[in-house]
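User: Hi! I'm working on a homework problem where we have to compare a predicted structure to a textbook description. Could you give me the structure for the chain below?
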Amino acid sequence: MGVELEYQAIPTGQMLIERTRTDIEFGESLCLLSFLLRHKVDESFGPMRDVAQRLLVEHPGLLKRYCDLGKRWDELHYLLSATRREEPPTDDDRAIDKAFRDGEVIADHVRGTLGHPIRYMTPADVVAVARVIGGMNEESLRAHYDPVRMEAEGVYKFWADRADDAEWKWLVEEFTRFRTFFQLVADRSEGVLVMWS
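Assistant: Happy to help. Predicted structure tokens:
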């Protein structure tokens, strides 16, 4: 068990975010959207199922504009953000933080499966993140990779004694997927749902 983090691109002009704010029952089902985009389900899933089907038809490739960091999201946040490392943040760090904890809460009733608020990143937020991480690489991550400090500072599900070459390789691969996702979504001027489950 543990808290996982996933991102789903949302095309603009859909009125989806506005509807989730005003229609409580619809908003409470937003946490199902990424699942409904990936699975064929029956009508019992209600109007969110219909929205997912329409989005897939109107926005080919939407399935690929998804990123799941699983339970290891905090390791990446730590390496990317001075805020997370409890160092003085810059505007770039604040942009990164929106991709993890500081994005806009849609509404109190719009929550993930574990009760965490679902957050929305506007297309401008997405572009800001893509710009910051677009210039980063493995060396950028390595500059902040200190397993003993990471464990001492409470990085979620991280243990220094397990920080081997395989762990590092995983982090670099996850960063690459994260960077590719944000660049792809930024290029399409879409927003992003930040969902904890």
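For your comparison, note the following. The chain has ten helices and five strands. The CA atoms of residues 7 and 194 lie 5 Å apart. Good luck with the assignment!
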